[in-house]
Amino acid sequence: MPPEAAEALLDLVFECFRARFGPRRAALASGVFHYEIDTPHGVRHRYVAVGGGSCTTSAALDGPADATIGVTVADLVAPAAGESKGTDAFVGGRLKISGDVFFAMSWIEWSGARSGSASGPDAEPA
Questions:
Q1: How many CB atoms within 10 Å of residue 20?
Q2: Which residues have CB under 8 Å from 64's CB, separation 6+?
Q3: Which strands make up the sheet holding 54-58, listed edge to edge?
Q4: Which of 27, 86, 110, 115 sits 20 to 30 Å CA-CA off 79?
């Protein structure tokens, strides 16, 4: 996969994460997740910012993140495609978390990743 295709894949995955975000699940929480994604072209970075009932994603961020999540591109894509749950990679040792671990684990609830099913912004927790 050429580097441009890898970047496009990451953008698509994070758009899926943003679309699955459930603002009612996040309530009044806010913070920033930093993803360090191991790709065939080296480590790539993506950020997910949650606050005020919204979720934004970007490839750059000024300032510190609340939690950093290290993962391979394959283990990142699988939950976005509904093929596995994020907790599977964490329990299997393929997903590493540093910083605020409890905040990082909240992302699983906020994005509906615990159930592996797609959820819209108004969906209730599974």
A1: 21
A2: 32
A3: 54-58, 42-51, 31-39, 67-72, 95-99
A4: 27
What are the φ and ψ backbone dihedral angles of 115, each rounded to 5 degrees?
-85, -15
Residue 123 has pLDDT above 60, yes or no: no
Count other C-beta atoms under 10 Å from residue 44's C-beta: 18
**Which among 81, 45, 37 has a CA at the least distance from the CA of 61?**
45
Phi, psi of 57 (to 5 degrees): -125, 150
**100 token code pair:** 């605020």
Place of tokens 């959820």: 119
Res 108 pLDDT > 60: yes
Spatial distance between the Cα atoms of 16 and 52, rounded to a whole number of angstroms: 19
Give the per-residue pLDDT at 120.
Answer: 43
Asked whether residue 73 carries a pLDDT value surpassing 60, the answer given is: yes
Q: Where are the beta strands (DSSP E) in the chain?
A: 31-39, 42-51, 54-58, 67-72, 95-99
pLDDT tens per residue, range 48-66 = 999 888 889 999 988 899 9
Q: What is the DSSP letter of 29?
A: -
